[in-house]
Amino acid sequence: MNFLAHIYLSGDNDLMKIGNFMADGIHGKHFGNFPMEIQKGIILHRNIDTFTDAHPVFRLSTKRLHANYHHYSGVIVDVFYDHFLAKNWSTYSDEKLEDYVERFYQSLKDNYNVLTPRTQNLMPYMIEHNWLVSYQTIEGIERILAKMDTRMKYESNMRFSVAELKTSYSEFEEEFTTFFENLITFTQDKILSE
């Protein structure tokens, strides 16, 4: 669910961004019909997820949530980390977040015919509520987590996790900063090696 990070880590290639963005809904090896750059984005997404799940700093963040949210802790930390990326966007990009996000939304519209049905259904709601920019505020991610919770039939209790974010805000932010520097290096190496 860390959409913003996945898009950002894809570099300047619009199709790689799209592949990385929609990869969660594509299972197994069923992506051979997509254009090559989208395939690369899907593979990059999977590499990022593997790197993230094994990273000791990411695991430290999830451990703080595990008692209350169990296996949803990783999903919640993904959202928290997207918050810190959006909040500190100027550290990572010279382009304003609003402009960057608008360009991404436009590329989704321009490439609508290659999107998965799931992404086609998600896109209008995402654009209307401007999810990627809304990550900048705690209220924004609170709405995202509440929406995700409804899809889980409220079993995950993710909507309550913002309380932990507020309590341990500086710890989560420091962990994000350390982790994201490592992840940027990892993804740049992956892209260059292709």
What does this structure look like?
The protein has 194 residues and is an all-alpha fold. It has helices at residues 3-8, 14-22, 36-54, 56-69, 73-87, 89-92, 97-110, 117-128, 131-134, 138-151, 162-167, 169-192. Helix 5 (73-87) crosses helix 12 (169-192). The longest helix is centred in the last third of the chain and has 24 residues, at 169-192. The mean pLDDT is 94.
Quick description:
The chain is mainly alpha-helical and 194 residues long. It has twelve helices and no strands.
| CA-CA gap between termini | 25 Å
Q: Please count the beta strands (DSSP E, at least 2 residues each).
A: 0
Order of helices and strands: HHHHHHHHHHHH
Mean pLDDT: 94
Q: Which percent range fits the helix content?
A: over 70%
Strand percentage:
under 5%
Rounded radius of gyration (Å): 16 Å
Dominant shape: globular
The number of helical runs is 12
Structural category: mainly alpha
- Largest β sheet strand count, sense and barrel closure: none
Q: Could you name the ranges where pLDDT drops below 50 across 5 or more consecutive residues? A: none
Write the layout of secondary structure elements.
Layout: H1 3-8, H2 14-22, H3 36-54, H4 56-69, H5 73-87, H6 89-92, H7 97-110, H8 117-128, H9 131-134, H10 138-151, H11 162-167, H12 169-192
